Amino acid sequence: MEVIAFLFPFVLLGSLVVFVAFSGGPSAAREAYRSQGTRGFKILFPVLYVAFGVAVPALVLAARDEAAGGTGALKNASLSKQEDRGKNLFKQQCASCHSLAAVNARGVTGPNLDQIGEVTPKRIQSAIKNGGTGQKRMPAGLLEGEEAKDAAQYVSKVAGK
Length: 161
What we know:
This protein is mainly α. Helix content is about 60%, strand content about 0%. The two termini are about 25 Å apart.
């Protein structure tokens, strides 16, 4: 369905180009549209353009459900309540510095969490508590307690996948 919704406007645009070409160019097509077109034709084209201008984006947005992430195997993965909370916490507190494909985070100062090797909840919680590796490049204790656990659980589930 998404493919059809994506392609249909291009097919419609192509048919409009063919109409203009066979009418003798833009000015002749405009004249044919104004003088020779039936009332239904004059109403149908603007209605179609407005409808598809609203319908296609609406279909695309409706098809975007909240999954674990937007890449690869994560597109259809579901999250527990804890992981969903961790996802939101990651977006709020971590995404500005760290890169993580699952949430389309493109941080520039922290490491890319998809490429740091084995990611376990314990490793992530330790990094949150100590401020990364302890070299003072990351503030220690950005998240604490259950929030740190939730974020660690989410990151360990999605990082590198």
